[in-house]
Amino acid sequence: MRKPVLLSFLLLIGLFFNALANDGYKLWLDYQPIQDPELKTQVKNLLDGVFFYGENDTYQVIKKELELASENMLDQSPIYSQERLGNSKLWIGTRDQLSQVLSLTQQGEIRELGADGYWRGPLVFEGKTYYAIIGNNPVGTLYGVFNWLNSIQTKTFNSSSIISDSPKVKVRMLNHWDNLDRTVERGYAGASIWDWHRLPGYVDPRYIDYARANASLGINAVSLTNVNANALILTTDFMKKVKVLADLFRPYGIKVFLTARFSAPIQIGGLKTADPLDPEVIKFWKEKTVEMYSFIPDFGGFLVKANSEGQPGPHEYGRNHAEGANMLADALAPHGGLLIWRAFVYSHEVDEDRHKQANLEFEPLDGKFRDNVIIQVKNGAIDFQPREPFHPLFGAVNHTQLGMEFQITQEYLGQATQLVFLAPMWEEVLKSKTFQPSQSSTVASVVETPINENHKTLIAGVSNIGTDRNWTGHLFGQANWYAFGKLAWDPELDSKAITDEWIKLTFGNSSELASKIETMMLESHEAAVDYMTPLGLHHIMGRSHHYGPGPWVTGGRADWTSLYYHRADSLGIGFDRTSSGSDALAQYAPEIAQEWSDPNQIPEKFLLWFHHLPWDFKLKNGMTLWDGIANHYDLGVKKAREMQQTWASLKGEIDPERFHHVEQLLAIQVEEAEWWRNACLLYFQSINHLPFPDNIEKPEGDLEYYKSLRFPNAPGI
Ligand code: BDP
């Protein structure tokens, strides 16, 4: 071949592969060309006559999104109508702006949806039918537009039906555990996306895509910095940087929060104390807050981790959590800010059971917090373990606003090498019955209900986002970000519905492909629990980096070891939290405590969480406890292999780049599942000296080898 011919040939091949390549950057906003002719005509018709009822920054954002979507889906730009009547077909605006064309009943129905709610559907005016997307505020309108675009991508759009929705939770928030040097605590997807060093001058275009993705899910708040906080974020220099982000995020309806280090008055204020009742300290925080609002008039507020894992707090000064939180809340209140105080507390003096600590510290303070304080509680009482019963605080206080904290980043659930879809786990927690404050209460209802009209409700998720091209390290980590956003909007949602939607948005509308991927996703959490911590085992991972198994971890602080949690000895295994043990069970409602205190009645998934039992205890299926444990570990490995096979069967149906990415990671996941099974079973056998049941694949390898493994460079520490 002659050189120029060869060159163009290579160029063509390059273009072809480029077209096939999909690095996952676009997330669920991929806006693939519409194939269905009828749908295409409908959408084209609407986008050929878009009319906005007014102008504001959020409508600019909507226009950009419509342009992007239209160019990708239809290969054309939307056509804007300058006049409402004439050629317009798609009307976009707020209820107020459209009041003249809405009937009183329609106005009432839309008003009822509340602040961020939206309505979309056909609207007949002067004999002609338009399609309208209406919010109660511009951000509600933006949510309506995203919902409409979502319906087009998932082929569920029907121009004659009315869809309306509104969030059940007020503050839907991501918590970044990002440090100012761009490392991310428990981050497995590269560095922090916040480029503090180059801000405020350099604005990474990625910030906008981040805001779009969040707004498309209804996420309306982000805390930018690690809960293990650095006081420097509260200095003037950093406020200028934060302001840039807040200004960018505002049109997307996203408010910025920061973590406040309780000792900041000492570190950056030159004071000798951070005592929350000291007048100088009170003054410091008031002035800091005023300064913050001078840069960011709608600043969300502070998130605080205090007196936990060595973080400073009010206890140093003989004050309690309410005194600490209220002092900060008072500084924020005149500006409308929120103070989010975490219930993940445990002190240096190790309690007989860490499980009980939050209730011990917060129950006596019930009703003592200001109206603008929310206590943010992790889903379970220990620490984001592969499976935990819901945190007992959710059923224990009636006069304190509690918010939910989930962990999206997979610190204990396979980090960024494993496909573990977390929605089923979150759903399990949210749907748990608390029996308090009423017999029908669930964790979801507690989280959704403001204790009075002055309170805001909250769901927060610890972000899994980083600078990796696909944002989350593992492609399927995107599904966890997506599912979190959906559940924060509506904690009653079913994880299957969320899964279906995400798959269609990510991989297209083929139903065979969808059903295979859906099975993998929906079974992945149970599989991980099986090969990591079945039957209520918990906290048996590697020390500090938390990567891989470490049931042998001992030495140092007792409640950071594995032995403290599994308590295995020659006679049995498990943590007795009944009245004969730590009695943590008594922190739950009597209905629960009673059922769970009986090892034959408690759901087996929580068995060893609450009971220390002999190795030959009989499980419901007739197996001994030891055989049951061994079978769960083995089953987990088999399920991981099944996931790998299912994925392999999709070869050719998914673009090569994403296919290969997941294929490689699933191979790692299978190895890691085997590693967990082998290490845990060999370790427990070294204690009970019982034979492995015949029906399982025998754990391979040598316990001493597994114990010797070190991961000094594991990410996220
Ligand atoms: C633990 C993490 C630690 C966090 C802590 C927290 O290992 O890095 O700082 O949670 O939530 O799970 O504060």
Proportion of strand residues: 5-15%
Q: Which fold name corresponds to the CATH topology of the domain at 171-494?
A: TIM Barrel
Q: What oligomeric state best describes the polypeptide chains here? A: single chain
Architecture per CATH nomenclature, i.e. the level-2 architecture of the domain at 171-494: Alpha-Beta Barrel
User: Would you state the CATH class of the domain at 171-494?
Assistant: Alpha Beta
Main β sheet profile: 8 strands, parallel, barrel
Instruction: List how many beta strands DSSP finds.
Output: 15
- In one word, what is the shape? globular
Structural class: alpha/beta
Instruction: From the alpha carbons, calculate the radius of gyration and give it in angstroms.
Output: 27 Å
Output the CATH homologous superfamily of the domain at 171-494. Glycosidases
**Rounded mean pLDDT score:** 96
Q: How many DSSP H or I helices?
A: 22
Sequence of strands across the biggest β-sheet: 6-7-8-9-10-11-12-13
The parts where pLDDT drops under 50 for at least 5 residues are 13-19
Q: What distance separates the N and C termini? A: 54 Å
The helicity comes to 25-40%
Bound molecules: beta-D-glucopyranuronic acid
Subunit structure: Homodimer.
Catalytic activity: Hydrolysis of (1->2)-alpha-D-(4-O-methyl)glucuronosyl links in the main chain of hardwood xylans
Protein name: Xylan alpha-1,2-glucuronidase
Family: Belongs to the glycosyl hydrolase 67 family.
How would you describe what is shown here?
It holds the Pfam family Glyco_hydro_67N. Keywords: Carbohydrate metabolism, Glycosidase, Hydrolase, Polysaccharide degradation, Xylan degradation. The strands form 3 sheets. Strands 6-7-8-9-10-11-12-13 form an 8-stranded parallel β-barrel. The chain has a 5-stranded mixed β-sheet with strand order 1-2-4-3-5, with helices on one face. The protein has a two-stranded antiparallel sheet with strand order 14-15. The model is unreliable at about 15-20 (pLDDT under 50). The chain is built from 22 helices and 15 strands. The radius of gyration is 27 Å and the shape is globular. The chain starts with a helix and ends in a 9-residue tail after the last helix. About 40% of the residues lie in helices and about 10% in strands. The structure holds beta-D-glucopyranuronic acid (BDP). Beta-D-glucopyranuronic acid (BDP) binds near residues 186 and 383.
